[in-house]
């Protein structure tokens, strides 16, 4: 009996010690760029090089965008018939993947790739199922830093096991790689993936509209407001090194400037990974200004890593709170309607306790000074009622200093 118990304990300890991700690789929400939202499988060596160049010359790298991630479509249709290794598409990447990874690294950036837990990726390229350890060694040899791991063609396997296996395979290959789970929140990864990965998708795919559903036939992708509303009550599962991921950004992909601002602000309020999904080579100055607003990025990247929350909606204006380091707060007033709305923030009535973080917003005890993070201007203090007009589908985003 006792020996059985000891055996069980030994087994559990072993299992635990092998099901640990590389710790500490994503103490702030990862920031970078991913090819999918704009290019889908139409990717190339040229695109990656140009994107990396602009990441540096535009100031995006210095603003914090580090990862360049190639999504689906980077592989040839078949594995190598002898070794079984994945084969980067020789037409799209004539110089080879290793040289491209080196190019990106030489720019002071990091490199990511995509694969899938199933037999094939969502776009029909070779999946990793049954090749987990081999593929992890392949990535380690290439020197990549980030792996997005999808969930198509996965009949007969369970998400927790499949993602744990890949996490263990990455660990065994001994190269620290940020592990991004992409099973769309189907099996509640926030409940089990903290030791497995560094971020996990919480929803289906995003679509570049403010508030729409785009029906693909058997599945839909979703506008920014739909994604925002899709998962309630999971903010307590997010924190440094383990983030909820409401999908890559659509800033610069066709929404209005106000909508892009709202999208970026709300991703920051959620402490979401900030993965740009636009064509950096042709982005406007306005798009770049949104993506590189340092004050808004600081809200997202705040070291406490507390995901913000909605405190309710009145007359189409939703109020979001995010506790920040040093007793500061970020407050975001989101106008969801298509007409301008008057904002009247009567601070004395807005105090609250955040039960998840125990942070207290107490404008009666504290006269917080305020800054409007989109105008960059001082916005008074909480001793005075704040009045503003919020344009349609736009935000007023404030940092309140203790
Ligand atoms: C899924 C993912 C997307 C993207 C595509 C690639 O839909 O959720 O983010 O990676 O697959 O095929």
Topology:
Blueprint: H1 2-18, E1 31-34, H2 36-39, H3 45-57, H4 60-63, E2 67-69, H5 97-106, E3 110-116, H6 132-142, E4 146-150, H7 159-173, E5 178-181, E6 199-201, E7 213-215, E8 220-222, H8 224-230, E9 243-245, H9 257-269, E10 274-276, H10 285-291, H11 294-300, E11 309-314, E12 317-323, E13 329-335, E14 341-345, E15 352-353, E16 360-361, E17 369-372, E18 377-381, E19 386-390, E20 394-401
The chain binds alpha-D-galactopyranose.
Structure description:
With 402 residues, this protein is of the alpha/beta class. The protein has two domains: 16-300, Alpha-Beta Barrel (TIM Barrel), CATH 3.20.20; 309-401, Sandwich (Immunoglobulin-like). 27% of the residues lie in helices and 22% in strands. The chain contains eleven helices and 20 strands. It has helices at residues 2-18, 36-39, 45-57, 60-63, 97-106, 132-142, 159-173, 224-230, 257-269, 285-291, 294-300; strands at 31-34, 67-69, 110-116, 146-150, 178-181, 199-201, 213-215, 220-222, 243-245, 274-276, 309-314, 317-323, 329-335, 341-345, 352-353, 360-361, 369-372, 377-381, 386-390, 394-401. The strands form five sheets. An eight-stranded parallel sheet has the order 9-6-5-4-3-2-1-10. Helix 7 (159-173) links the parallel strand 4 and strand 5. Helix 3 (45-57) runs parallel beside helix 5 and helix 9 (257-269) packs parallel to helix 11 (294-300). The longest helix has 17 residues, at 2-18. The protein is globular, with a radius of gyration of 22 Å. The structure holds alpha-D-galactopyranose. Alpha-D-galactopyranose is lined by residues 36, 71-72, 114, 121-123, 150, 182, 205.
């Amino acid at each position: 009996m006792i020996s059985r118990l000891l055996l069980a304990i030994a087994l559990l300890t072993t299992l635990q010690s092998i099901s640990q991700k590389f710790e500490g690789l994503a103490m702030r929400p990862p920031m970078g760029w991913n090819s999918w939202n704009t290019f889908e499988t139409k990717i190339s060596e040229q695109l990656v090089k140009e994107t990396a160049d602009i990441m540096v010359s535009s100031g995006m790298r210095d603003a914090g965008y580090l990862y360049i991630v190639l999504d689906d479509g980077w592989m040839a249709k078949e594995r190598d018939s002898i070794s079984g290794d994945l084969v980067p598409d020789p037409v799209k990447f004539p110089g080879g993947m290793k040289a491209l990874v080196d190019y990106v690294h030489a720019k002071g950036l990091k490199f990511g790739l995509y694969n899938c837990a199933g037999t094939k990726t969502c776009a029909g390229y070779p999946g990793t199922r049954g090749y987990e350890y081999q593929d992890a060694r392949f990535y380690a040899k290439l020197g990549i830093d980030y792996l997005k791991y999808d969930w198509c063609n996965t009949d007969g396997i369970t998400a927790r096991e499949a993602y744990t296996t890949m996490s263990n395979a990455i660990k065994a290959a001994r190269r620290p790689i940020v592990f991004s789970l992409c099973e769309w929140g189907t099996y509640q990864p926030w409940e089990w993936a903290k030791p497995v990965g560094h971020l996990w998708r919480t929803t289906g795919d995003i679509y570049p509209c403010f508030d729409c559903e785009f029906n693909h036939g058997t599945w839909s992708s979703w506008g920014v407001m739909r994604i925002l509303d899709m998962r309630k009550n999971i903010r307590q599962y997010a924190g440094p090194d383990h983030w909820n991921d409401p999908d890559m950004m659509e800033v610069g992909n066709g929404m209005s400037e106000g909508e892009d601002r709202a999208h970026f602000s709300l991703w920051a309020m959620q402490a979401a990974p900030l993965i740009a999904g636009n064509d950096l080579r042709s982005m406007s100055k306005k798009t770049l200004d949104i993506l590189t607003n340092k004050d808004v990025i600081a809200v997202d990247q705040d070291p406490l890593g507390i995901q913000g929350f909605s405190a309710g909606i009145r007359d189409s204006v939703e109020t979001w709170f995010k506790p920040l380091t040093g007793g500061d707060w970020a407050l975001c007033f989101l106008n969801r309607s298509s007409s301008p709305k008057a904002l009247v923030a009567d601070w004395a009535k807005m105090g609250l306790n955040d039960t998840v973080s125990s942070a207290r917003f107490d404008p009666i005890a504290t006269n917080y000074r305020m800054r409007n993070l989109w105008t960059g201007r001082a916005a008074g203090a909480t001793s005075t009622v704040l009045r503003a007009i919020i344009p349609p589908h736009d935000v007023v985003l404030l940092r309140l200093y203790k």
